[in-house]
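Weekly structure sync, notes
Attendees: PL (lead), two postdocs, one rotation student
Agenda item 3: pending single-chain targets
PL asked that the sequence for the first pending target be pasted directly into the notes so everyone works from the same version. It is reproduced below exactly as submitted, 394 residues in total.
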Amino acid sequence: MYFLGELILILTSSVLLGQIFTRLNLPAVIGQLIAGILLGPALLNCVKPGALINLFSEFGVILLMFLAGLESDLALLKKYFKLSFTVASVGVILPVVFMGAASLLFGMKIIEALFIGIVFAATSVSISVVVLQEKGQLHTPAGTTILGAAVVDDILAVVILSLFTTFSHTNGNSGPTNNLGINLLLEASFFGFLWLIYRLTPHIMQVADRLNIAHANKIVALILVLSMAWLAEYVGLSDLIGAFFGGLALRQTTQYKELDTAISTIGYTVFIPVFFAKIGLEITFTSFLSDLGFIAVMTVLAIISKFWAGKYSCQLFGFDKTAANIVGAGMISRGEVALIVAQIGRKNQLFPQDIYSSLIFVIIITTVLSPFILNYFIKDNNDVRYSNKNGNEL
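Predicted structure, written out during the meeting:
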């Protein structure tokens, strides 16, 4: 009964604060985070993370990564693959280098510094999509590049995260055995298994459609994704990589829109709001003032690393300055994936625990600032032109 009371408080405050931020044209996820901060030890201290909240949160993050894979448009990735891959790759490398180096200057160990860079390697373009739609730029080469780069970005971030946790050995044992060679072989085999599942998934879902059971295809999809998440965790990788690639596999099926609607309903009504609220529950302001310099430096580096990656990569492919600036600004927001990676780092003690709140503040600040920066560079639709290296308009 106590947990039900906590759940009522979390969902009610998440809805109310999420609505406020949506009205401000900002992501509802920020409202959900602030709901956790409000209810947690930072302010009211009326909700404390417990076993059931942790369980709901874990299920929420699996569903969130599954939906990220399910909503990834591979057709966009194929159309602008070279440019999107370049933008995403440089956009992963620069935050790791810039923010990793800055973390070293703040006295952190190499492993901790690298992980902080990985936290800010991911991009969340959900808020950029809203701005691009309003300005009529979503289906331009810049908008398409941002969407394609976000797909590659998420894949690279999840894979790097899994490999990092494997080699850092923060849990003492990163796989089912005590032999690193065997564990690495099992992890490599898992990626081979992913390819097999990707090929078999359309046939599995065809069988599911023939079952005389209500919502059979949704149940089978959940079984598939949860199994892949469990198997990834078992071989020593993050369960997120299994969930994400499970979503990618189901994306190619004819039922993916139906699955997206159903799983989104399951996730966003209960489990995903609890996940974001739980992040807020773990935030405190005890070291905020002392970490203000760290927060300021990391925020600046988080912005310029993604902006430069998008801008200069696009200029190499012939985009004019205005279009390249739009891509750079569209890649700044971190959002959900960065929050997930930070949460994993906290759980596995991959960085000093006393800076966790500061990292969350940086993620929130970049997410809030990104639409204003993007709006600044989209002055007028007629000002945006896309030309190739020969000067011909695309």
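Discussion points:
- Residues 388-394 have pLDDT under 50 and may be disordered.
- Residues 180-209 form the longest helix (30 residues).
Action: rotation student to compare against the earlier draft before next sync.
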